[in-house]
């Protein structure tokens, strides 16, 4: 029987396998960020050294301010302390860290791939759940907790039990105006946030093959919101072309990359198929990524809930979101818009939003935080910053920013924000903040309308 | 890590599905070093008003549930962010065990590595247990990691499974780093094989 893409990468990294299925996997690439301080403390407490600083890379993103690139000038002393600790841990352990002032700083899941640090066939881990993003390049990439970060720092390995293998096929061509973000939200609306639990999703099908690498990164980024440990896409010519010339990527594609695909007779534990031709711009209405509908639709009513558990969850969501149920999405009035995050802040995302905004004025405030300092410079070279600024948006520095709201700014209590990020959880953008997840184009159109609408 | 063998304790019902780690540990507290204040961070925005007053309507604030060491939760508990601080907060609140039909993958792993026992049982069983502890506040449950059996108030027993390696570590209070470091020769040999191509 043939092997899946997942099995090929897994097998190539097993240092030791146990009888119970658990395997000690070698880690090719380990990323960390400011939040990894617990792990460095654990290492210090045990007097252990970082085993492979050369395979370890730090990115300052979670606490990075959106204004200013100088650590000493960060105003909040607690936040400054976290950033300083990150920089000190990197220096003390001889690790290359992309610090705040570094011209290549960025969100780890944007800047890591951008640097060519994530390559096909690699195992990639980071103390961040959205590490699934890197699977877009044909890597086996997953998020881990602080204890596991300490384990990887000390041993360059990680214990894993093999996940269920799920193939998610998007058949047909994605209609113009729909994006990878809409594919992800449509999938999660269909299978639920628990749909991928304990699983690794391989995204396949014509619509996935047609995606750019940046769009694949968006799709794999959201795999964790379906509950999956990781998402991945088989590398192809598009992948190789995208990697060429990046600072840490090889000058020529590795011939081994061409063997990284699921064999025709490979077996998956489960299969999900979606008709890509039917996917329209989506948005969430509730406090779970699965609570998503097309922007042309309406918020569901409680009596439409498929079961009692969902009915209770929907009631809580509607209450928190300040919605009645039944209203048209296009009638939901916004207070602000956020364009950014590891999901949707790459150059193509900014281009899509700018194309909608060109020559228009915003009805509500909008923050734009590019995914990396490189993306910011590239956007400025193209003049995208002018389009955003002329429309009335704040054009600021690269940071996780309002996706996780750790950098000092939050969305206010009761404020409604259309956001290109990945989580609409209660309190995610700030206590009492109401988040609607959308694509960059929909975010821009919504900022102009002051309501939740698509760019169509 | 503290060893976990057996626990008999008051259980609290939390009848919510998809409880994410952002709810368990709001992001704004994550910059703080791990200390006793983590007890107030756990479920903070549901336990306290914006002014800091305790909300008596939230079940985990109500006696005797406020002294519970076992949480009987809804499905997909601990989904979302990988933040291990969510486990630190639950431990600081006094929990040593969470029972649910399913868990977020990373949360499940984080819990095991910190001595918080995640017990996975069929949804119908979890619903019955939750109803039982909700109907009679102060009801205790017993979990035994050695036998991997949970005993309900009515005496019925329910078998759960904790992956072997994690179970060994938890029973002995050992962390994986120490054990993996004994495999250094194997790790070095792997690196040499890779380098040789």
From TrEMBL, chain A:
PROSITE patterns: ACONITASE_1 (PS00450). GO terms for molecular function: 3-isopropylmalate dehydratase activity. Its cofactor is [4Fe-4S] cluster. The keyword Hydrolase does not apply. Its EC number is 4.2.1.33. Keywords: 4Fe-4S, Iron, Iron-sulfur, Lyase, Metal-binding. Residues 7-450 form the Aconitase/3-isopropylmalate dehydratase large subunit alpha/beta/alpha domain. It is an enzyme of class 4 (lyase). Pathway: Amino-acid biosynthesis. It holds the Pfam family Aconitase. PANTHER family: 3-ISOPROPYLMALATE DEHYDRATASE, HOMOACONITASE, MITOCHONDRIAL-RELATED. Heterodimer of LeuC and LeuD. This is 3-isopropylmalate dehydratase large subunit. The gene is leuC.
TrEMBL record, chain B:
It is an enzyme of class 4 (lyase). It comes from the Bacteria. Pathway: Amino-acid biosynthesis; L-leucine biosynthesis; L-leucine from 3-methyl-2-oxobutanoate: step 2/4. Its EC number is 4.2.1.33. Pfam families: Aconitase_C. Residues 1-123 form the Aconitase A/isopropylmalate dehydratase small subunit swivel domain. One of its GO terms (molecular function) is 3-isopropylmalate dehydratase activity. It catalyses: (2R,3S)-3-isopropylmalate = (2S)-2-isopropylmalate. Keywords: Amino-acid biosynthesis, Branched-chain amino acid biosynthesis, Leucine biosynthesis, Lyase. Heterodimer of LeuC and LeuD. Belongs to the LeuD family. LeuD type 1 subfamily. HAMAP family: LeuD_type1 (MF_01031). Catalyzes the isomerization between 2-isopropylmalate and 3-isopropylmalate, via the formation of 2-isopropylmaleate. This is 3-isopropylmalate dehydratase small subunit. The lineage of its organism: Bacteria, Pseudomonadati, Pseudomonadota, Alphaproteobacteria, Acetobacterales. The gene is leuD.
